[in-house]
Specification:
Radius of gyration: 27 Å
CATH architecture of the largest domain: 3-Layer(aba) Sandwich
Bound molecules: flavin mononucleotide
Number of helices: 9
């Protein structure tokens, strides 16, 4: 099997031919890259596991475990289930019953604690409701717990509520739900200006505070460009805010783009000199002046690593 292919399992538990839940799920699927396998639970006619089915499982019958094996092999999972009777349609429960198979989707460890065997890291659960979703733990909460047992710990829910209430603007509710889905997948992009400040053969590095993203990693002083600023203005403002110094940029040392999982950073590193003030730690945990030979003794933010390699060799 080609394990590099992104194999997306779309569990379609929408009873209606024209379904608002399926519409939202399709929107979500449009953001995922890969091969989509749609499992239409109403056309599959999956039945509750009876005594005979359980005995077949125990004998390792391949046919009876096909849904479990399909789920275990999927890289991405999208479940579309309308809000019915305070939870979801029974067709979904029957599928979950047929996929909860020891040795396929989960296993019991030596201490009796279940451990997941599924490949996917995350599951998307899409639902729509005529009224309000009362208590999510009745329906999706159970699905979330079961998937966690299968080893799939990230659970993302998207819903549209109050669709059937008298006077409801159905299209508005649906579009807002679609916008929330689009927003989830839109990766933010920021421009960052950073300062390479020299003092003879040493340059300044700053350690991020522990409670921030990439906490305690080292970086150059600087930060995100705000609306209406040039990058040089950003650099001057950020150095004032972070270090209480005035700097003068003297040229671009390097510029690159780094993709973090949640954000794309366009980074421009300026050579800069301090024209006023002594650096203070207004935002950072620590500040150090280091030589090129000391670079390997510090752990830097991933976006800076390429630049530090260049600094090491650039003499
Ligand atoms: C059998 C059935 C049970 C339903 N139960 C509820 C419910 O308990 N609470 C609620 O707010 N809406 C309930 N509804 C309304 C659906 O949640 C709503 O119409 C939903 O948008 C249907 O999704 P669909 O357009 O994908 O079929 C129920 C609808 C049906 C057909």
């Amino acid at each position: 099997m080609d394990t590099t292919l992104n194999n997306i399992l779309f569990v379609d538990c929408c009873a209606r031919r024209v379904s608002r839940t399926r519409r939202l799920a399709r929107r979500l699927l449009s953001h995922l890259d890969g091969d989509i396998t749609r499992l239409g639970l109403y056309s599959e006619n999956i039945k509750p596991a009876d005594e005979n089915d359980i005995a077949r499982r125990d004998k390792g019958d391949e046919e009876i475990t096909k849904y479990a094996r399909q789920l275990a092999a999927a890289n991405e999972i999208v479940i579309a289930a309308p809000y019915w009777d305070l939870s979801f349609p029974s067709a979904l429960k029957v599928w979950l019953e047929q996929t909860s198979v020891v040795g396929v989707t989960f296993a019991y460890g030596e201490n009796g604690v279940p451990a997941g065997l599924c490949r996917a890291k995350r599951v998307f659960y899409v639902t729509t409701a005529g009224g309000r979703i009362f208590d999510a733990s009745y329906g999706e909460g159970y699905v979330k717990a079961l998937f966690s047992m299968f080893g799939i710990n990230e659970f993302y829910e998207f819903s549209a509520e109050n669709l059937d209430i008298y006077g409801a603007d159905e299209e508005k509710i649906m579009s807002e739900a679609e916008e929330r889905i689009d927003g989830f997948f839109a990766k933010k992009r920021v421009s960052v200006a950073a300062a390479l400040i020299w003092d003879n053969d040493r340059f300044m590095i700053c350690q991020r505070p522990e409670n921030k993203k990439r906490g305690l990693l080292w970086e150059f002083a600087g930060g995100k460009r705000e609306a209406g600023e040039t990058l040089e203005e950003t650099l001057v403002r950020e150095c004032r805010e972070e270090l209480n110094v005035t700097v003068r940029p003297t040229g671009v040392y390097a510029s690159l783009t780094h993709e973090y999982p949640d954000i794309t950073v366009d980074l421009t590193l300026y050579n800069a000199v301090i024209t006023e003030g002594v650096p203070q730690m207004l935002e950072h945990n620590d500040i150090k002046w280091i030589t090129r030979d000391q670079i390997d003794g510090f752990e830097f933010c991933p976006a800076d690593k390429e630049i530090l390699e260049r600094l090491k060799n650039d003499r």
